[in-house]
Amino acid sequence: MDIFEITDDSVNKAWAGSDGYCFSMKDYTLKNVSELSDNDIPDNVSKSQIMVILGYVPYVTVTDVEIMRAFIDTINNKKLKGNFEKVEDNDYVETFWKYCNIYPEISNDYGDFEHKYVKDKIVDWCKENGINYAIK
């Protein structure tokens, strides 16, 4: 039985926040989408349709803003949560790091949270796609 190993590398690839990777159901590895050939794609079929036909599944992606919003939701500080509810996505990262300097509970716990959050998203993605996995 094939096993997809969830490692620091696979976490980093999910964290990229882009659609740059896909998963091969044939050999249980991650592939860089840019390395896949466009040669045999008919004009009326999208690259994502061909990927599915060839046994590739788009890999999960997680953005910094998604992780930061999820982290803020875990904090027991209504004033802080209220301040972040008003922040737009394009300003979120900069605002988050500014608040890290003011509120130590953010900077103290964020590192562990972000890594676990991405791993959990990968586990959910594996379950949704019927992929056997192990956390390394």
What's the topology here?
Elements: E1 4-6, H1 8-15, E2 21-24, E3 29-32, H2 47-53, E4 56-58, H3 64-74, H4 78-85, H5 89-102, H6 104-128, E5 133-135
Parallel strand pairs: 1-5
Antiparallel strand pairs: 2-3, 2-4
Range of helix content: 40-55%
Distance between the termini: 17 Å
* Mean pLDDT over all positions: 87
% residues in beta strands: 5-15%
The gross shape turns out to be elongated
Q: Structural class, from secondary structure content?
A: alpha+beta
The main sheet orders its strands as: 3-2-4
Spans of at least 5 consecutive residues whose pLDDT stays below 50 are none
The succession of helices and strands, N to C, reads EHEEHEHHHHE
Helical stretch tally: 6
Q: How large, in whole angstroms, is the Cα Rg?
A: 18 Å
Q: Describe the biggest sheet?
A: 3 strands, antiparallel
Number of separate strands: 5
How would you describe what is shown here?
The longest helix has 25 residues. Helix 3 packs across helix 5, helix 3 packs across helix 6 and helix 5 packs across helix 6. The strands form 2 sheets. The protein has a 3-stranded antiparallel sheet. A two-stranded parallel sheet has the order 1-5. By secondary structure, it is an alpha+beta fold. A hairpin with a 4-residue loop joins strand 2 and strand 3. The protein is 54% helix and 12% strand.
